[in-house]
Amino acid sequence: MRWANNGLIAAPEWPEHWRRRLWTAAPWLEDTIWQAAGVWILREGSSGSWSRRVLSKVTVKKVQEVATGMYTHPTVLLSLPDNIKEEDDPALDAVALVLECAPNMEPYLIPYLVAVEKARHNWPLKKEATVSFEWAESAKGAKGKEATRKLNRVSVTEPLHGKDELRFFVGEKDVREHFLERRQIDRELIIKYGPEYRIRAGGVPKGCIWPLASKPIHVGGETSDEVLKKYKKGEYPEAERRSRLNWALYQEETHTRLPIKKSWKLKTKSRGKKRPD
């Protein structure tokens, strides 16, 4: 009831003929129980890892707001350690995965999501688990057409590494595996086309941005500059701006790459172009 009064979870809906008394059982909704599991892991179940001063009700509400976006417009950031070389084929576990969010939200976001899904799937909160978000493969439409990514399901399984873990799948394949395959393709293109392709592509990537969205996003015909212009005009809401911008940048860096011909020359005007934040 204290969490409900503070707005951290939905308050029970008391029927009109009920009188609220201290001994009266509260009619909690099932979704509220899942929310309470997430609040509990932050406020009570973290073994004192975070102080109450840091995790105020304002911070918890912000974590809940950001967590809601993980089911609709998440952006996954993938990266490899600095000591990984271009010719290396690292293991899947070497790829670090974080969720794009404000720095002060990062330590709490994954524990909250994992706790909520454990409760939703009747999994003991104190038992480690692997929580998997499984997104459908994005359909590739013609230029000017739109494609959608749909969250098919969220599953909770036995832990893979003896600890709580959050994983993202696209088309039944881990996004980290997609990223490692992209590294392999870039290596092959550098070998085939030589140093010109290396300059064009910027080498074999050690990290990437992987935006996911349940709402339609443009596959082609929209550059990062166009996204920013439309956002400033109010055509895109704040909730879509970042996903659309990251998607446009991803398309510019990967899907728009063309095979390099021997007669092709670099245009120096585009090399110094500043990328938007």
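(the above was protein one; protein two follows)
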Amino acid sequence: MGLFSFLNTDRQNFNVSAADSRLSVDLAKFIIGSTPLGKEPWDGDSFAKHLEKEVTLKSDQYGYELGVKNGKLDYAFFIIKDFKGNFLMKDKSLLLSSKTTRDEIISIFGEPYWTDIDDSEIILFYEFQESTTELQFEFPDGEHLEFITLMKGGILSKREQRESYGVTKPWPPEKRQQ
């Protein structure tokens, strides 16, 4: 090992900008970069410093928006056609695109807690972690994936929202296996 070899680390190539084109999102563990949803952003994540000062980070260029509430990562929203990062499921890459269909999502994640159909738009709602984490897949044309939202205290956790979506299932949902 050379005297100055310690200077040649990945750290010098660390992207210090707030938005990261290579953002990873674990849809089974609910981790954005290295930060679990509901926790304070980890200092090593490119978005951490920005979210210390602002409540949102919106990157149209990379197709995502992140938000904090009370200093903790509260939600992540992804525009599939623009998202340059990667989705993971059980530590394996999950290839999702604007060609991904509703049936493909259901084959990966199972039956959703609730399906909202409004005209041709369809939203699949999945509830996790004793209904404190919500994962939504949106299909504006009714068939092809366009948006993914991952959030703490999701929309359906509020009684009024369940009523407005016409939810007829009991709340909270039964525990589900991931």
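Reviewer note on protein two: Residues 102-109 form the longest helix (8 residues).
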